[in-house]
Amino acid sequence: MNTVQNPTKYEPTEKEKALLEVLINPENRMKSITDICKIAKCSRSTYYEAFSKPEFVEIYKQYSVDLVKQSVASVLNTFIREAQRGSFQHGKVLLEMAGVYTEKQQLDHSGNINTNNPYEGLTKEQLLKLASDEE
Known about the structure:
The protein is mainly α. 58% of the residues lie in helices and 0% in strands. It has helices spanning 14-23, 33-40, 44-51, 54-84, 88-97, 124-134.
């Protein structure tokens, strides 16, 4: 009989949980490992042992991504507000995100152009760019 075992879900230790809580707090972003360990009330060896576990690293990455996702709405609102106030940089970023604006691109070519068909050899993207420039 062939039985398939369910892998046990990784559960951080209490010290690792405390460490994660300190690590994901934005106020601690630029603190040293020593300071982080003091705040988390754990040793440096606990810190290094935790980060040697791929499961701990995965949880830390997921918590970090979740934290960023929680902040996206307020960041976008700030960019919109600043763009409405006339900030070119904020407006540019929003337009790029919306796919409405792209930086001017350098087009290199060999210099050999077939005068019978000047568009021969151009990629679809290059042709679309030419068509949008002509409008």
